[in-house]
Design a protein that fits this description.
mainly beta, single chain, Jelly Rolls, B-gal_small/dom_5, 12 helices, binds beta-D-galactopyranose, Immunoglobulin-like, eight-stranded parallel sheet, TIM Barrel
Length: about 950
């Protein structure tokens, strides 16, 4: 039996040849809006004759178009990373194949021209069959790719009936196994376009730039009679096929100079934006306009927490603004061409783009790649069709510097053929595909999640494969941003900067794909795999972005912005070094200012004169005149935008650096001398009361407290849970989540309380000896903790510090230390030294899957107060880390969604000497050796005081 159209591995049928996406002065009407909709569980159950003009759809539901029907109460979203959620029997799909019938009746505008017309669908997931006024136009596959159908001959002024039957599963689904939600429907724009006879059918702009002469070479390939005009360049009516050379300003992601032009015939005018740039691979480097570029990139899926991949334009713009503001300079459109609007924004605002075809067959990996379409001739047309539609649609974007064949489809003839076709069609851009491990048909060597050591080897040219060695190297994915992380970005940057052929990478990934849901009490939270009752799913592996689902930057993005800032400001022996890490720009477009703080309080500020510094160079600037201070003095230098740009307001901080000027004064003499008093079951020392049996502090200045006690546990992060044997599994095997504290002795000395304990897991022989030494003077209570491993420790420690609980009313937090955001040993570049104030609520990072978060580092002192100003202050000798939350680490560990976390009555404080780093083991390397925390002999000291009013 011949396969049904949706199970046919061939591309769709009936559509017009792919062409560039553009809007012209020809008439167009959007057919977005409210359509009639009916979902059937299978094709067999779908209504007969729904395509007929007189079909009665009045009893149907309505559905907005564009949309995914699963996000409007029809069916449910499902998430898998690699596995196909149906039996793998290509090209067949389940007979229980949800079928969404869509109908729209529309009139033409009164002055609609009597000309040919096309119906354009920018994206239908996964297969659509289209009828207009009862006649079939064709079938489209390739969910994230456009299809156009000739429609003019069927149109009438009023009462046109457009019917689209969409199948959730099709042969195309085998090629669309990207790590994301399975969501169906007409999810991108539907447009009816008039196509005037004698108009511009298609065009390809060529705008190369010769960096030696400063000349652009401009031409347009199009049908005879098509002309190009660019008024700002004095180019008028340049016929298709002819080239002009003339001095121009080049386009780059850093300086996205576009020239407005028009491609025209007598019948149609197409406004275009031209960016001059030439991409080449030379000397083993990818160069644009003669200069090697460093990709500080992200992988971007299109996602919105309510509308999925039907992305509102505001969200596309928000993505661009957020990227530019966080020093992202490149995007890989993982793993399909984005909505065309996004690429327009990339041209205008400046981002390097790897445009990727809509292709992934990862699930065949589960079968040892048996039957993988990439090497099967029956799929060749589908592979070529997808690539062709990608390249033809997007060929005129200066922002696109590489074409990518797809993702994780292993290797095979069809990919090689797609590479060949692409190179022939568009020799102006190199071809990327990570899965061509031997680099047989690609132009750049690309890897995902290679660890630092391997990148170092690649940089050192130790690769035995000569083809690969000769190519530029990039990490198409790195820095897996799942949950709390990524850690280790700084060390990647150092490698990218050390080796000229290592040209950067693309963090995985831009945004968490959480979907908004309400719990029984109507509280919103973000759902992930499994939350919709899926039988097969990959849980929260879809929550791995540097943006939370609502587009709030996560600490990972703030860290990225700092690590990859294009200007680096550091201290030198006598002054300030300002290094220019742009690829093209000098520093003249920035203003520099300085601010001097004593103990976190501003004492002086001013502008800093920085000479023009060329890319790759640096200048040394003398320190500004600074007033004398007695406290700790830090100079902060900021590079800001003097004027608003299209993507950020004036004053936006592009880069900053902090220079220590005056070290912290010696700590005040230790609090000692107060006598220890023994009364009943209590001990009194200075402001503290202790339980005489356990030696635990019970009140501090009259406030009830619990602890502090040694604490090693943290609610594991996604990265702690990653790669076997995971840190988490080792920690749990070692019982670190259920340590027991044995009080060996409570020693009462004249002016000191010493509590000796052994902290150890049940059923195991090793532990930590922890001694608490308490002393006090009139106002201060001082604790010195000494720890020492007892026995052989089998694993790292999540944290080493103290935990205590204080009254819940102490919800106002102020500190002098690193901030304002959370920071961890291997993700702390974005934290600066200063004085900060936050509520306890604001200290939490609401990771979609709850886990350790909110740690503040290098704290000198911390104050927790209630509304009336009463509370406590904790001073380090000299530094400590802290976190404060309204639930315990155990509650955080047990929570699966943010709404599981219910504030309790107490505030739980962690006061740490150190925490284990974050790493990226959820997908990629774990914590680098220098950031791993081991059980070791250690000591640290804190001083507690009470505060009575505002400091
Ligand atoms: C890569 C893949 C991505 C994503 C990532 C893990 O292998 O290309 O699509 O699945 O792993 O989050």
């Amino acid at each position: 039996m011949p396969p049904s159209y949706f199970e046919d591995p061939a591309p769709g049928r009936g559509s017009l040849a792919p062409r560039a996406a553009f809007a012209s002065d020809a008439r167009a009407v959007s057919l977005n809006g409210t359509w009639r909709f009916h979902l059937s569980p299978s094709l067999a159950a779908a209504p007969e004759g729904m395509h007929a003009e007189d079909f009665d759809d009045r009893a149907w539901d309505t559905l907005p178009v564009p949309a995914h029907w699963q996000l409007h109460g029809h069916g449910k979203p499902a998430y898998t990373n690699v596995h196909y959620p149906f039996p793998v029997q290509p090209p067949e799909v389940p007979s229980d194949n949800p079928t969404g019938d869509h109908r729209l009746t529309f009139d033409l505008p009164a002055d609609w021209p009597d000309e040919p017309a096309v119906l354009r669908f920018d994206g239908i997931d996964s297969c659509g069959r289209v009828w207009l006024n009862g006649s079939e136009l064709g079938v489209t596959k390739g969910s994230r790719l456009p299809s156009e159908f000739a429609a003019g001959h069927l149109l009438r002024p009023r009462g046109n009936v457009l019917a689209v039957r969409v199948h959730q599963w099709s042969a195309g689904s085998y090629l669309e196994d990207q790590d994301m939600w399975w969501l169906s429907g007409i999810f991108r724009d539907v447009t009816l376009l008039s196509r005037p006879s004698g108009g511009v059918a298609d065009y390809q702009l060529h705008a190369g730039y010769d960096h030696v002469t400063g000349e652009g070479a401009l031409s347009v390939t199009a049908a005879d009679g098509v002309l190009l005009s660019v008024p700002a360049l004095g180019v008028e009516d340049l016929p298709a096929g002819e080239t002009v050379r003339l001095p121009v300003e080049p386009w780059s992601a850093e300086s996205p100079r576009l020239y407005a032009g028009v491609v025209h015939t007598a019948a149609e005018r197409v406004p275009v934006r031209i960016g001059f740039r030439t991409v080449v691979i030379a000397d083993g480097q990818l160069k644009v306009n003669g200069a090697p570029v460093l990709f500080r990139g992200v992988n971007r899926h299109e996602h919105h927490p309510e509308s999925g991949r039907a992305l509102p334009r505001e969200s596309a713009l928000a993505d661009i603004e957020l990227m530019k503001r966080h020093n992202v300079n490149a995007v890989r459109t993982s793993h399909y061409p984005p909505d065309p609007y996004f690429l327009e924004l990339c041209d205008v605002h400046g981002l390097w783009v790897i445009d990727e075809s809509d292709l992934e067959t990862h699930g065949f990996g589960d079968l040892g790649w048996a039957g993988n379409p990439s090497d099967d001739p029956q799929w060749t047309d589908a592979y070529l069709d997808r690539m062709r539609r990608t390249v033809e649609r997007d060929k005129n974007h200066p922002s696109i510097v590489l074409w990518s064949l797809g993702n994780e489809a292993q290797t095979g003839r069809n990919l090689a053929a797609a590479a060949r076709w692409t190179r022939e069609r568009d020799p102006s851009r190199p071809v990327h595909y990570e899965g061509d491990f031997e680099c047989e048909y690609v132009d750049v060597y690309s890897r995902m999640y290679a660890d630092h050591e391997e990148v170092d080897r690649i940089g050192r040219q130790e690769d035995p494969n000569a083809r690969r060695r000769a190519m530029p190297f990039l990490l198409c994915e790195f820095g897996h941003a799942m949950g709390n992380g990524p850690g280790g970005l700084l060390e990647y940057r150092e490698l990218f900067e050390r080796y000229p052929r290592c040209q950067g990478g693309f963090v995985w990934e831009w945004i968490d794909h959480g979907l908004t849901r309400l719990d029984a009490e109507g509280r919103a939270y973000f759902a992930y795999g499994g939350d919709f009752g899926e039988q097969i799913h990959d849980g929260n592996f879809v929550i791995d972005g540097v943006l939370h689902p609502d587009r709030t930057p996560s600490p990972g993005l703030v860290e990225f912005a700092k690590v990859f800032e294009p200007v680096r400001i550091t201290a030198t022996a006598g002054g300030i070094r300002v290094a220019n890490h742009y690829d093209f720009l000098s520093l003249e477009h920035l203003s520099f200012s300085w601010a001097y703080e004593e103990d976190g309080v501003a004492v002086a500020s001013g502008d800093l004169a920085v000479p023009s510094v060329h890319p790759g160079q640096s200048a040394e600037v003398p320190l500004p005149p600074l007033p004398d201070v007695t406290g700790e003095g830090w100079l902060t230098v900021r590079a800001t935008l003097p004027e608003a740009t299209a993507w950020a307001p004036a004053g936006h901080v592009v880069a900053w650096g902090q220079l220590p000027v005056v070290p912290a004064p010696l700590p005040p003499t230790a609090a000692t001398g107060a006598a220890l008093r023994f009364e009943g079951a209590e001990l009194h020392l200075g402001a503290g009361t202790f339980d005489a049996a356990t030696g635990l502090l019970t009140t501090l200045g009259g406030h009830r407290v619990h602890g502090p006690r040694l604490d090693l546990w943290r609610a594991p992060t996604d990265n702690d849970r990653g790669s076997a044997p995971s840190e988490e599994s080792q920690w749990r095997a070692a019982g670190l989540h259920r340590l027991q504290h044995r009080v060996a002795a409570v020693k009462r000395r004249e002016a000191e309380l010493v509590v000796r304990t052994r902290v150890a897991p049940p059923g195991l022989g090793f532990g930590l000896l922890a001694d608490y030494h308490w002393t006090a003077d009139a106002g201060r209570l001082r604790l010195r903790v000494e720890v020492e491993p007892d026995g052989e420790w089998p694993c790292t420690l999540p944290r080493l510090g103290l935990r205590m609980a204080v009254p819940g009313s102490f919800g106002a937090v102020a500190w002098f230390g690193a901030g304002p955001g959370e920071a961890y040993a291997d993700s702390r570049q974005a934290a600066r030294v200063g004085r900060f104030a936050r509520s306890v609520e604001e200290l939490q990072t609401p990771y979609v899957y709850p886990q350790e978060n909110g740690n503040r580092t290098d704290t000198r002192w911390l104050r927790l107060t209630s509304a009336d100003g009463a509370g406590i202050r904790i001073d380090g000798e000299p530094l400590f880390d802290f976190s404060a939350r309204r639930w315990t680490s155990e509650e955080l560990d047990a929570a699966r969604h943010t709404v599981d976390l219910e504030p309790g009555e107490l505030l739980h404080l962690n006061l740490d000497l150190a925490q284990h780093g974050l790493g990226t083991a959820s997908c990629g390397p774990g914590v680098l050796p220098q950031y791993r925390l081991h059980a070791q002999k250690a000591g640290f000291t804190l001083t507690f005081t009470t505060v009575d009013g505002p400091a």
